[in-house]
Amino acid sequence: MAQFLFQVLYSFMIVTIVLGNSLGELQKSYADLVMECAKEFPITPEDIAQLQNKQLPEKEPVKCLLACTYKKAGMNYLLLIGYLGIEVVNEAEVSDGTKGCDRAALMFRCSIDKADESLNDAEVKAAFTKTVLQCTKEFPVDMKELLQLQALKVPKKQQTKCLLACAYKKIKTFNDKGMYVLDEGYKFAELSKNGDEQRLINGRKLAEMCSVVNDMEVTDGDKGCDRAAFFFKCFTENGQKLGFKM
């Protein structure tokens, strides 16, 4: 049963980075939800084996168990959707209307399929999101601004630009003078290559492309807020062109 719970919760791994929880704590939290839902939707050992083998569930109780768990997960589930990019399940045709059982089965399969291919870039995004959230204590912004950043839209409000600058300084992408540090860009490329030399090459290329922000005119001196917005635009737009999932 424990292994089954891990399989069901596997798609929630990225949330641990954002929330700062250990995987064990997250497993326990969702294990409680699964056990609660299992009272309403009991499943058999054969069903568990099917899920362990990453097979799309066919039985209604199994699908509905997943749907029940995802619904009870609330905001953490929404965070997962954002990081794994599996909104496509909402567009799929289902036979059970608003019950969500068929869609939950599709979400389970999609999250398993996509987790391996997007985990590294998702980890990077999630870790940066955690840093941004830490900076909201000093530079509070409303949820709309955070969602705009999540959607890769370059901020226009100075407070949001300064929020980015704070985050970039914390991860040493920017120095205390508000300037981009190219050597840190190279280190980041090395850190995120994941054994793929082409990722390393593209990462270094991206770092060099975005070093141009140091030559751009800014209105806020060494605060780095304007430059952070320039860097965000360069990094997200060119990163996607170079094959990185943003």
From TrEMBL:
Pfam families: PBP_GOBP (PF01395). Residues 39-144 form the FDX-ACB domain. One of its GO terms (biological process) is sensory perception of smell. One of its GO terms (molecular function) is odorant binding. Residues 1-20 form the signal peptide. It comes from the Eukaryota. SMART domains: PhBP. InterPro entries: Fdx_antiC-bd, PBP/GOBP, PBP_GOBP_sf. Gene3D superfamilies: Pheromone/general odorant binding protein domain. The keyword Transmembrane helix does not apply. This is FDX-ACB domain-containing protein. Keywords: Signal. One of its GO terms (cellular component) is extracellular space. It comes from Papilio machaon.
